[in-house]
Every structure is written in C-alpha cells, then in structure tokens.
Amino acid sequence: MKKTELLRELNHIYALPDGWDGYGAIKIQKPCYEWTKMVIENMPEDRVYSIYPNPNGTISLEWDDKNLEIGNTKFLYVFPISSIFWPIFEDKKTHCVDGANVQLKVLFKKLFSRPNVP
Fold first, then answer.
1. Distance between CA 70 and CA 81 in Å, rounded?
2. Are 41 and 79 in contact (CB under 8 A)?
3. CB atoms within 10 A of CB 5
4. 24-34 pLDDT, tens per residue?
5. What is the distance in angstroms between the CA of the first residue and the CA of the last residue of the chain?
6. Helix (H, G, I), strand (E, B), or coil: what is residue 45?
7. Residue 83: CA atoms inside 13 Å, Cβ hemisphere, count?
8. Is the Cα torsion angle 103, 109, 114, 118 positive or negative in sign?
9. Domain-by-domain residue ranges, the chain?
10. What is the C-alpha separation between 50 and 61, in angstroms, rounded?
C-alpha cells in the first residue's frame, strides 16, 4: 500500500469508537495513533500491505511474513522462526521495545529492509 493509503486507513481506524468490533474492543488512543503515523511516515514506500486495529487498542502493520503491533508505549515485532538468523537489534536479545528509548529511524530501516539470507 502507498503511504497515503496507509495514512487514510490509519485515520479511519483512529475514528473507530469503543466497542467497534461488537465485543468491547478498546478505542485506539492518541499515543498509539501518533506512533503508527510516525512509523508509516518513516518507512519505505510500498512495504506494508495491511494495517488493522486490534481489539486490545493496538494497531498492526503487516509486510512480507512479519507483523509490527503498535501500542501506546510499546511495539511488538513478530517474525517467523526462520528469520532468527536475521536479528534486527544489535543486542540480539529483545524484539519488544519501549518506543521512546529506540533510535526509531534506525529501527524502521532495519525492520523494513529485506534480509540477506543465503
């Protein structure tokens, strides 16, 4: 999806009310919206093919076989086990980070780059 499409869909997701799924889903809060907007604005064009809200008040972005779930204070990066040889963080220990403590542009570049796996 183009960034403009992702941002349009993000605005639609942000406007969803509490209970949007009919089962008590939590409305997306402003910090989650702002983090997601920043991710979209800083990622390469046409990498993400899906954006959707989660009932726990987070937003997910999907690309290739990866998923980034963005909340109010944390990101959760989900990747297939076969990607274990392609660590995105230098410490190779964590894939759940506090967004405020990460150099985000470096993180996004690593997240959205294509792995060089033989």
1. 21
2. no
3. 13
4. 999 999 999 99
5. 28
6. coil
7. 18
8. negative
9. 3-112
10. 6
Please return the burial class of 110, using the count of CB atoms within 10 Å of its CB with bins 0-12, 13-18 and 19+. Answer: middle
What are the tens digits of pLDDT across the range 53-109? 999 999 999 988 788 899 998 887 776 655 544 444 444 444 444 444 445 666 666
Contact 77, 62 (CB under 8 A): no
Place of tokens 């990866």: 66
Which residue pairs, CB below 8 angstroms and at least 24 apart, start in 88-93? Answer: none
d(CA 42, CA 6): 12
What's the rounded Cα separation, in Å, for the pair 21 and 7?
Answer: 21
Yes or no: say if 97 and 107 are a contact pair by the CB < 8 Å rule: yes
